[in-house]
Amino acid sequence: MPQHLTEQELAAARVRAWQRVELARHPQRPYTLDYISLLFQHFSEIHGDRAFGDDPAIVCGPARFHGEPVLVVGHQKGRGTKERLARNFGQPKPEGYRKALRAMQLAAKFNRPIFCLIDTPGAYPGVDAEARGQAEAIAHNLREINRLPVPIVVTITGEGGSGGALAIAIGDKVSILANAFYSVISPEGCASIMWRDAAQKEQAAEALKITAEDLLALGLVDEILAEPEGGAHTDPKQMAEILDQALRRSLAELRPLSPKELLVRRYEKFRRMGQFFRLV
Predict the structure, then answer these.
(1) pLDDT of res. 7
(2) Tens digits of per-residue pLDDT, 83-92?
């Protein structure tokens, strides 16, 4: 934050950042399956990674978007305690990432655009996930998705938690809902490390620069999508209409590009991230 801000203004900024986190985590916020029912037709879910099993924390499958065949991939947290437990609170395991990649490679084979909807606290850190190659699955996705020669449109609809989000978020166009956030670590996790006190989460949220405006200024996202007053959960249908327009606009922009142009632009896009100076 600029040094001329008063302590009161700094405190207000921290609260605003934390409020965005709370809105992004609102239990009634639309999830991937909600957007699928509102935006897509003839969705047919794909299950399993052909190696271990299925992961309900990630849903994916072919669908039609305004008559055009596409693939939809996204995180699903679930509603209610029973479903949240079944979907592991939207925290994927390796089989989820492998399933997503399998579906995305199938879409590329048939020249279908890919829409990715991101909303996860992060990859599941359990022993079983680590034993089955969690880090390798994420790394493999980062490499292989970057090579897919079809348009990939990514939208961060809620939480964008570190590698758990990035593993299906390599896209040609990356948008974020106004009250969503994208971060390398949760504010609570950051506060626990930096100040050894998770109660400092509001300060951590501001320091991490995780709000949509921060991310746009840093070049990590391409567009901020407005939400209905009060947040996406207050009017899911209106939010879906806003997202529908953004997806159509992004697809119209990317469709004319050749596979080679897509790959070059995508590579350059992600290589530019984190570069704040140039050697002369």
Answers:
(1) 57
(2) 999 999 999 9
Span 236-247, pLDDT tens digits: 999 999 999 999
What's the whole-model pTM score? 0.90
C-alpha to C-alpha distance for 280 and 167, rounded to whole angstroms: 34
Task: State both tokens at 30.
Answer: 């639309």
Please, what sign has the CA dihedral across residues 97, 39, 234, 216?
positive
Name the token pair of 23: 């809105």
Q: How far is CA 256 from CA 19, 26, 253, 259, in A?
A: 39, 37, 7, 10
* Phi-psi label, residue 224: left if phi above 0, alpha if psi -120 to 50, beta otherwise: beta
Strands 68-75 and 58-65: antiparallel
Cα–Cα dist 159/141, whole Å: 19
Residues 168-188 as b/e (b if ≥16 CB within 10 A, e otherwise) read bbbbbbbbbbbbbbbbebbbb
Structure tokens at 132: 């089955």
Sequence-distant (6+) residues with CB within 8 A of 169 are: 116, 118, 154, 156, 160
Q: What average pLDDT score do residues 125-144 get?
A: 94
Q: Which of 234, 257, 253 is nearest to 245 (CA)?
A: 253
Summarised one tens digit per residue, pLDDT across range 210-238 is: 999 999 988 899 999 999 998 999 999 99
Helices (H), the chain: 7-24, 32-39, 80-86, 94-109, 127-131, 134-145, 162-166, 187-194, 201-207, 212-217, 236-254, 259-272
Does residue 169 contact residue 129 with C-beta atoms inside 8 Å? no
Q: What is the pLDDT of residue 106?
A: 96
Token pair belonging to 199: 């109660």
